[in-house]
Amino acid sequence: MRALHFLALGSLLTATLTAQQPPFKSGARTVAVYATVTDRDGRLVTDLARGDFEVKDNGSPQALTVFSSDVQPITVVMLLDRSGSQRGNFRLVEAAAEAFVDRLDPADKARIGSFAEKIEIHPPEFTGDKSVLKGILRNDLQQAGPTPLWNAVEAGITSLLKQDGRRVVLVFTDGADQPGNFKLNNLSVMDVMRHAQEQDVMVYAIGLSGANTSLGGGGFGSRGGFGGMLSGPDPGLPTIAGETGGGYFELDRGGDLAATFARVADELHRQYALGFEPQKLDGKTHKLEVKVKKPGTKVRARKNYIATK
After folding, report:
1. Level-2 CATH architecture, domain 74-269
2. Residue 252 pLDDT
3. Which CATH number fits domain 23-71+271-306: 2.60.40, 2.90.10, 1.10.287, 1.20.120?
4. For the whole model, what pTM was predicted?
5. Cβ(287)–Cβ(61) under 8 Å?
6. pLDDT of residue 222
7. pLDDT value at position 25?
8. Domain residues of the chain, as ranges?
9. Please, what are the averages of pLDDT over each run of 10 residues along the chain (309 residues)?
10. Do domains 23-71+271-306 and 74-269 have the same CATH topology?
């Protein structure tokens, strides 16, 4: 019985280690595509096989050289809007972000940022220590200010560049991009989306809209963070999420935030890893199409890649 016990324990350890190995090897000429599949009710579909997927590169079907449905580790930068319109919701957002931290697996790594007057990302290095991450949420987020949304997402992408494996930016905001710094070199959604595509970084976004958000009075207290405009979440958020293979969730009630942050973590852990060897490394942008053959399902994945030489 003892021998069987150790055999079973060894098998479990081997399976755990295998699930944590990244499916894409550094330096390999493989296009990495992470796919989220849901049913008609929005529930995750996690039992598909390699043959259920079809991937096209510029319209040409590709043979999958990589397929994995195992739980894959993630490296994530979580960016939280600290605009004045969110002042009354700060603790609610912090608690929701903690729900995301609680869902992180031992192999995951994260940093947490906030954007207002400045863009700050803590700690200096990525960590899987949940107590450190929760301490940042409770003690290190800045006070209210404007909304330099795209500058912040760019900072998140840049911080991920030296990391291996699946890299994710998760951004929360209730407003449109309003840097409020009177500079001429602020980035646009197109600038940031291009960089995310070049570096294979996935962007997830959560937007809070509707009359139930807390509105401060005047100045930086407006939704969008500046100038008194009630703009709602930036319209570029669903675009960048869709193009990079992430997801966009827009809520009209702050009470749904914790469940949505937790949902994003669950999605990230249950994505399919697909890969193929590109036929041309021409330096151009290639259109990607990912389809699932199982009826009643919907798939989200990146829509293009740059075939860097």
Report:
1. 3-Layer(aba) Sandwich (3.40)
2. 84
3. 2.60.40
4. 0.85
5. no
6. 33
7. 52
8. 23-71+271-306, 74-269
9. 35 37 58 96 96 97 95 95 87 95 97 95 97 96 93 98 94 91 87 94 92 37 38 91 96 87 95 94 93 96 90
10. no
Calculate ∠ Cα 222-195-55, nearest 5°. 115
Structure tokens at 233: 């979440």
* Rg of the chain in Å (alpha carbons): 20
Q: Which residue from 8, 60, 6, 66 is spatially nearest to 34, judged by alpha carbons?
A: 66
Q: Residue for token digits 């009710």?
A: 41
CA 255, CA 275: separation in Å to the nearest integer? 38
Contact 243, 286 (CB under 8 A): no
pLDDT score at 210: 63
